[in-house]
């Protein structure tokens, strides 16, 4: 199983970015998917969750600004981020989970300048 993120970069505060996670070895139609982020010196936190058959859930700090989605045909997990803030700066990683086994990608850097 491999997950490969893309779409990170540098953006000004108030701007938008779209992240994509290409998954191989795991059919996204049968798993729960997540996006997490990690700042230097801090633990990784899950910011967006999309379980099979359920609505998306978000941590309070990104609610209303981030949108998680899955494309089962392309086997990708996507994260649309709007109204970005400097405190959103972190390494963003995607995760697939099935039957208790979790798989994380390496991550992509997102930097929001003020």
Please name the defining characteristics of this protein:
114 residues; mainly beta; seven-stranded mixed β-sheet; 11 strands; globular
Outline the structure in words.
It is built from no helices and eleven strands. The model has no long low-confidence stretch (mean pLDDT 96). Strands 2, 4, 5, 6, 9, 10 and 11 form a seven-stranded mixed sheet that branches. Strand 5 (45-50) and strand 6 form a beta hairpin. With 114 residues, it is mostly beta strands. 0% of the residues lie in helices and 55% in strands.
Number of strands: 11
Give the termini distance in whole angstroms: 37 Å
Q: What proportion of the residues is helical, as a percent range?
A: under 10%
Radius of gyration: 13 Å
Number of helices: 0
The general outline is globular
What integer is the average pLDDT?
96
Which spans have pLDDT < 50 for at least 5 consecutive residues?
A: none
Order of helices and strands: EEEEEEEEEEE
Q: Which class do the helix and strand fractions yield? A: mainly beta
Largest sheet: 7 strands, mixed
Strand content: over 45%
